[in-house]
Design goal:
Helix content is 72%, strand content 4%. By secondary structure, the protein is mainly alpha-helical. The radius of gyration is 20 Å and the shape is globular. It comes from Deefgea chitinilytica.
């Protein structure tokens, strides 16, 4: 579908120009980093097939978290394709968290009410914060599937390092330092271009997307096998 013409005064605003530049970067990533993009397209397809097979599932509540994880994955793809590198990691963290919450609530269905009542009172909020700690959720993932749980922890920690928190590596991957005889110049990029950092981020997005679906596999194994999600993931993992 062709894009409509922009509204009046669109090109006068700096934020609009930024959006346009980001969109052009998305086109460039799609056109030039074809192998990385193809893998992400496979993972997106795996999510869509998985979601379409969740109707009438006994674990219907956790299906909401599959959808949210997919939405986070798509947002991270858009950020990374445009070159917004640290921002991508913040979204990928949320993707993993949705998978961890979905797994936890599938294993602990009585905790749904606790989660739903978070904003009923201060005590309810404290109860949710105490029960839904990431450390405990990752420990459950390791208990359910040692390999995928360990991978989840590694990936989650990396999201924190590279953008989900304002840590050193989040800044340094966007920072350029130039000096001359008189001055040191610091340049922080909002949008990366065709760099090794961009390629690494696309690869990491694929790893997180697969990891989240692998956690959901422990909840929906029969459905994932029946609808071919496992086969799509196996293909996406090749060479990763």
């Amino acid at each position: 579908m062709p894009f409509p013409s922009p509204p009046p005064n669109w090109d006068r605003e700096e934020i609009s120009k930024f959006f346009d530049e980001a969109r052009l970067n998305e086109f460039a990533t799609f056109a030039h980093l074809t192998d990385d993009v193809a893998r992400l397209l496979d993972i997106d397809r795996a999510y869509r097939v998985a979601i379409s097979g969740l109707n009438h599932s006994q674990n219907w509540f956790s299906a909401f978290f599959v959808i949210r994880a997919h939405s986070n994955f798509l947002a991270a793809c858009r950020m990374s394709w445009s070159g917004q590198i640290p921002e991508s990691y913040a979204l990928l963290r949320s993707c993993l968290e949705n998978a961890l919450y979905g797994l936890y609530l599938a294993r602990n269905p009585d905790s749904r009410q606790t989660w739903l009542c978070r904003h009923d009172s201060e005590d309810s909020k404290k109860k949710v914060k105490k029960e839904f700690q990431i450390k405990a959720l990752i420990e459950l993932a390791i208990e359910v599937d040692a390999h995928e749980g360990d991978v989840t922890k590694i990936l989650y920690d990396r999201t924190i390092d590279f953008g989900a928190h304002p840590n050193e590596r989040a800044l340094m991957q966007t920072l350029q330092i130039e000096d001359d005889a008189e001055n040191i110049h610091f340049k922080v990029s909002y949008l990366d271009d065709d760099s090794d950092t961009l390629k690494q981020t696309l690869r990491f997005a694929a790893q997180v997307g697969i990891c989240a679906l692998s956690l959901f596999y422990t909840v929906y194994a029969e459905s994932f096998q029946h609808f071919g999600v496992v086969d799509i993931l196996s293909h996406a993992k090749d060479g990763l």
